[in-house]
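Quick one:
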Amino acid sequence: MLSYWISIVLGIVEGLTEFLPVSSTGHMILTQALLGIPEDNEMLKIFEIVIQLGAIMAIVVLYWNRILRLFGLKKDPTRVGKKKLNLIHILIGIVPAGVVGLLFNNVVDKYLFNPKMVVISLIAGGILLILAEKSNAPKTAVELDDITYRQAFYIGLYQILSVVWPGFSRSGATIAGGMLSGVTRGASADFTFIMAVPLMFAASGLSILKSHEMFTMDIAGFFAVGFIVSFIVALLAVVTFIKLVSSIKLTYFAYYRFVVATLFALYFFVL
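Output:
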């Protein structure tokens, strides 16, 4: 079961979908089903956490200078005397989802983490993307440093959707939430990626601590391959998305989600 080609395939899927507004959860569930991997495979659940860390490390690399500025370890001469993004923005953005996640994580895993719910959330998330793109809300935050504390909080509230609704897409919810709150598409994406670092590190770290006894040397290679593949693919995916985000409308991702939801429904409920 734990072959390297499965590690590579799942690493590619995770890296491609984690930071795009298409739902990595939905894609991972569908991919595992197509590969014939049982839903209750505990080892694969831990593997998903490991490759998710690979994807988040790509964000750390890409936004390294920005992260250093957040902690005051690097100065930006172009922002002297001007408002700028700081750790309070990030904290405000992650607290709502963090609190809800801690309170309802077990409930979500037990009752909502299933194919039917993912199909519904893929469609609902796609509708939110379309609403965000069609919104005429004036964009008061053109760049990342223009985001206000209130906008950071609103984005954090939208992020809750991805916590309680598997398959909704964290990046999709927060990018759309940012646009509906008056933040441009590009600035919303940047904030989404940076905000993901502490939230995902915390969630992944907690899961790993709970399951640390499952990490043995005989699966180290399988995990390492998936981690590396996820890191490289996520790096390429995010770089491409950042370059194209100003010109690619969210509606295209919404239509893609509808197609995946249809395939999902056909596979699990018809075929």
